[in-house]
Specification:
By secondary structure, the protein is an alpha+beta fold. It contains 3 helices and 7 strands. The chain is globular, with a radius of gyration of 16 Å.
Length: 152
């Protein structure tokens, strides 16, 4: 697929609480469609519905998967793979996280420190590039906070 209109669009949320990042462990797929992804980490997110923009899709996925409303959302990065457009967002939540018990995809939430994420490997993630994006987010967050300390 060559044109960007033909690429599947995916949104993913980088959710941070203090210095910890939210990851989910995928459960086994009862339909065996994506069983190769079981027991792998991923971020909250999913595919866009027809005629949905990426911001609306991100808010919908967050509500569906963790039962939260979004306080603030901003695009962190956009990555194009062969047949995918992936949009990663910085997300601040209004509510406590309440995972949807009927969502068979997610088997548990885990908060990881930046140090713990740096110790993970690509093969532990459900999708290529996800760990790279998280590590880049950590690097830029650290750099920003370091500069704030210098200029305070």
């Amino acid at each position: 697929m060559s044109g960007t209109n033909n690429r599947k669009k995916i949104v993913r949320a980088i959710i941070k609480d203090n210095d910890n990042y939210l990851l989910f462990l995928r459960a086994p797929d009862p339909h065996n469609i994506h069983d190769e992804l079981k027991n792998k980490y991923e971020l909250v997110g999913g595919k866009l519905q027809p005629e949905e923009d990426v911001f609306a899709a991100m808010e919908r996925e967050i509500m569906e998967e963790i039962g939260c409303k979004v306080d603030k959302i901003s695009l962190f990065t956009h990555i194009i793979f062969d047949d995918l457009n992936e949009y990663y967002f910085d997300v601040n939540l209004l509510d406590e996280i309440k995972p949807n018990p009927e969502d068979f995809v997610l088997d548990g939430k885990y908060w990881f420190s930046a140090k713990e994420i740096k110790g993970l490997y690509d093969y532990q993630f459900a999708f290529n590039g996800m760990l790279y994006v998280l590590k880049e987010h950590i690097r830029l967050d650290y750099k920003t906070r370091k500069n704030e300390l210098v200029y305070d």
